[in-house]
Amino acid sequence: MDAPHGPTLLGFDVLAVGSILAGVAAAAVMLAIYAAITVKDPMAKRVKALNERREQLKAGIVTPNTRKRASIVHRNETTDIIRTFLEKMSVLQDSQLATIQQKLAQGGIRKKEWAVAVILGRMIGPIVLGLIAALVIYGINYFPEWGSFKRFMAFAVIVILGYKGPDLFVQNLIGKRTSAIRKGLPDALDLLVICAEAGLTVDAAFNRVARELGRAYPELGDEFALTAIELSFLTERRQAFENLAYRVNLESVKGVTTTMIQTERYGTPLASALRVLSAEFRHERMMRAEEKAARLPAIMTVPLILFILPTLFIVILGPAACSISDNFINRK
User: Fold this and answer.
1) pLDDT tier at 106 (50, 70, 90 boundaries)?
2) Is the Cβ–Cβ distance between 177 and 109 less than 8 Å?
3) pLDDT tens-digit readout, 51-62
4) String of b and e for 272-300 (b: at least 16 CB within 10 Å)?
5) 313: number of CA atoms within 13 Å, CB side?
6) What pLDDT was estimated at residue 82?
7) CA distance linking residue 8 with residue 191, whole number of Å
8) Do the Cβ atoms of 227 and 234 come closer than 8 Å?
9) Distance between CA 70 and CA 120 in Å, rounded?
10) pLDDT digits (tens, 9 = 90+) for 60-103
11) Is residue 181 classed as helix, strand or coil in its secondary structure?
């Protein structure tokens, strides 16, 4: 085999490796340009689906025929089978089902029938993962160096994770969505104030804010677009605001919905109330940032002690220790 003609580093041809890396970088740049050119509005598909849902609900309200109304509701056969199975085993409770449905809505999952899948995951997860853990730990003895207590603890942790896994997944979705909505809420209230002062109605203002904030905050734009659609066809506008508070796990949103309901009932000025709420939310966001900044010294203490100080001691005391050891060796 011929030796490489160009300069080498650790046995590799530098020119060949540089050419490959340059090609990979060029491909990455082209991919980034393509992604930037073909970017799509994240709200377009969701707004289209919400408008279709509004038309279906309107058709269901005005259609007297029960067969036509039943045909509008698309049932999932899989979740129906799961529901029947859980009802036969008497493990499906209405209160538990309602709680999971609300959590799914707060996590951005609109299909309430998937709540039965979460309950089924709670029931089957510990059994499946427990059998796998028992087979690996006790059956084939994959960890022979482990003692009996360590094996039991590993088995118990896996079973608990199997039971809590669906809840942790849903809670993670709720946390991410809630954080994204919290970031964009003050800006959304400022836009609502501008829309209210411009003379737009409440549903038109929500729709406008949803379009403007759809790219920066798609989660908040999604919720506002759905609220605007519900305001346009629900008989009680109060129900639309209550649905917004039901879908978002955030006290700030509940305060906004309470303000909107009071303005609808008593006719108080909407712009002034929203302006006060926006100022409060911005102050709250600044307080959270200051709290994180105040916690930073305490958080950095452990990395400072474990990683930075030992390295600093080695750099400072290392030459002195080397010179002292050399002097002792020369004396001998």
Assistant:
1) confident
2) no
3) 666 666 556 544
4) ebbbebbeebeeeeeeeeeeeeeeeeeee
5) 7
6) 66
7) 61
8) no
9) 26
10) 544 444 443 444 344 556 666 666 756 666 656 677 778 888 88
11) helix
